[in-house]
Amino acid sequence: MEVGQMQRQWIDYTRSLFIEGFLDAQFLQLEQLQDDNNPDFVVEVVSLFFQDSHKLLNDLTVALDQKSVDFKMVDAHVHQLKGSSSSIGAQRVKNCCIAFRNLCEEQNIDGCLKCLHQVKQECCLVKNKLETLFRLEQQIMAAGGSIPLMELSF
Amino acid sequence: MTSRNLSTQLRALVVDDNMINRKIHQKMLNGLGVECMGVANGKEAVDVHCYGQSFDLILMDKDMPIMNGIEATKKLRSVGICSMIVGVSSRSMEVEIREFMEAGLNDYHEKPLTTAKLASIIHHIINTKVFYSYNDHFIFGKFLNDPFI
């Protein structure tokens, strides 16, 4: 596949991630921070996010499995996950966390368990989507091309 | 007031228990020409000042373990730290923001921060430095020998 085609594929794929709500404008902020001094900044931050979210989701699973659930602790973990998902622009994960926090406030265990399942799914989905995106970027760079500048004009 | 050398880079302290937020905010500030340091809670922010470090800007998260942003801001102000302290939080309830502001913040921004928001903060700090370094006799913007003070 020639570079122009790959770049168009990248643009279409990135656009779909925004339209489907996986990513929001904050992701573009991350991309704008990437430069020649830090060419892998986005991949580094996103990798950190998924390492961190993996641990938080495990902690949440354990916390919600207790006989007497400590909702303050659950809320603290969800707050962390909401903060970091918001910072990288993972919109659907962030929105799940907002709903999750409301359920913590209500001390609704069943609701929290459903939300936890949903957050795990959304994290998995966005992880796969971003891995595909980064693979496309690597293919473009390997073919001697550059990553197009993305603006939210849709 | 002693005028400061404006060719010195600004220094910022990013106080946030979330490592990803710290990394992003520090990178944003580096991109704006600001030298940065990061700590994970309010107590570390206070300790860093006790060890003699000073900053032009402190980005203070609100919810942190050990010592939160409100306690840390109060402590820093009580020991005479006059740096610009900007509170950041994902909380948006007015009563919580007011409590944070009353602890001694100069400004508050909701997360996530953007480079544009940080740029406006940095420009404000630089403009303030230019104003006060213009004339060493300025005190709160008035000339010392002004008979009408």
Give a description of the structure.
Helix content of chain A is 77%, strand content 0%. Chain A is mostly helical and 154 residues long. Chain A has one domain: HPT domain (Four Helix Bundle (Hemerythrin (Met), subunit A), Up-down Bundle), CATH 1.20.120. In chain A, helix 1 runs antiparallel to helix 6 and helix 5 runs antiparallel to helix 6. The longest helix of chain A is centred in the C-terminal third of the chain and has 34 residues. The mean pLDDT of chain A is 93. Chain B is of the alpha/beta class and 149 residues long. Helix content of chain B is 41%, strand content 17%. Chain B contains 5 helices and 5 strands; from the N terminus they run E-H-E-H-E-H-E-H-E-H. Chain B has a 5-stranded parallel sheet, with helices on both faces. In chain B, strand 4, helix 4 and strand 5 form a beta-alpha-beta unit. Chain B starts with 10 loop residues before the first strand and ends in a 15-residue tail after the last helix. Chains A and B meet through helix 2, helix 3 and helix 4 of A and helix 1 of B. Chain B: InterPro entries: CheY-like_superfamily (IPR011006), Sig_transdc_resp-reg_receiver (IPR001789), ST_Response_Regulator (IPR052048). Chain B: Keywords: Phosphoprotein. Chain B: This is Two-component response regulator 24-like. Chain B: Pfam families: Response_reg. Chain A: One of its GO terms (cellular component) is nucleus.
Give the helices and strands, then pairings.
The complex is a heterodimer of chains A (154) and B (149).
Chain A: H1 3-19, H2 25-33, H3 41-64, H4 71-88, H5 91-106, H6 109-142
Helix pairs in contact in A: 1-6, 3-4, 3-6, 4-5, 5-6
Chain B: E1 11-15, H1 19-31, E2 35-39, H2 42-50, E3 57-61, H3 69-78, E4 84-89, H4 94-102, E5 107-110, H5 115-134
Helix pairs in contact in B: 2-3
